[in-house]
């Protein structure tokens, strides 16, 4: 746990990542996502910019949810990219990020719950949010790192510390994750759709009976069959799920 809670160090992280990335670290902020979105909107953000924080007072998750973790217990960061591929394909970007997180946590047999929650032993260890801003996308990622059981946000969550990751630092984790994301993103940029196969191989959702909960108390139940070319979850009924909460039933 001591290694996972060791302070973030931008100079260390920037020696790990490729020249594509520029990582900055702040001690405290309301939200790395809001900070990076603001920089982009002001014309100051560039593709490859990353902001990481030790603590967020107003962290943001999917579907307008809040997220908070005690200082030093989570890896919290946002990155900005400017895809050259058609905007019609941008729905895959948060899924690419989910694949990248699962790959960097491959030692724990991490899987992805559609669309991009990352699970270890069926419990959530990471989630993310993606926003189109200007000519690009800001992706915010949170990974439960050094949390103990009492610090978990919900009983269905876990952390790297709980799962036995005691020989890695958040600096190493962030550097490795950014480099893996860059490889996946670059291949996708060049027109490769290999990410679809990678996603399905890592999916904890495909093949399972699920309940889809939509805003407004509407829901669907069915077998998750595949991922569409635009990143939607396809049920055996033919329904294409663009956004919603997925509950694994069995």
TrEMBL record:
GO MF term set: biotin--[biotin carboxyl-carrier protein] ligase activity
UniProt keyword terms in alphabetical order: Ligase
Pfam families with a match to the protein in the record: BPL_C, BPL_LplA_LipB
Domain BPL/LPL catalytic: 10-189
A GO CC annotation given for this chain: cytoplasm
Keyword Ligase: yes
Entry keyword annotation includes Ligase: yes
Protein name, entry field: Unannotated protein
Gene source species: freshwater metagenome
């Amino acid at each position: 746990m001591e290694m996972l809670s060791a302070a973030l160090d931008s100079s260390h992280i920037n020696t790990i990542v490729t020249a594509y990335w520029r990582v900055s670290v702040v001690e405290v902020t309301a939200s790395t996502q809001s900070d990076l979105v603001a920089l982009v909107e002001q014309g100051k953000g560039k593709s490859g910019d990353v902001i990481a924080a030790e603590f967020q007072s107003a962290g943001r998750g999917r579907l307008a949810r809040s997220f908070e973790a005690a200082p030093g217990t989570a890896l919290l960061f946002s990155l900005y990219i400017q895809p050259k591929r058609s905007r019609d394909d941008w729905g895959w970007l948060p899924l690419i990020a989910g694949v990248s997180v699962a790959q960097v946590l491959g030692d724990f047999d991490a899987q992805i719950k559609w669309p991009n929650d990352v699970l270890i032993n069926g419990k959530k260890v990471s989630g993310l949010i993606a926003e189109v801003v200007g000519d690009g996308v800001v992706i915010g990622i949170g990974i439960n790192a050094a949390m103990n059981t009492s610090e978990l946000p919900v009983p269905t969550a876990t952390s790297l510390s709980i799962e036995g990751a005691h020989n890695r630092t958040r600096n190493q984790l962030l550097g490795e994750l950014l480099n893996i994301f860059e490889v996946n993103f670059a291949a996708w940029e060049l027109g490769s759709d290999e990410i679809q196969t990678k996603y399905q191989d890592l999916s904890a959702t495909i093949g399972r009976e699920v309940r889809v909960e939509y805003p407004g108390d509407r829901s669907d139940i069915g077998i998750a069959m595949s991922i569409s070319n635009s990143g939607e979850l396809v049920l055996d009924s033919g329904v294409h799920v663009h956004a919603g909460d997925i509950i694994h039933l069995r």
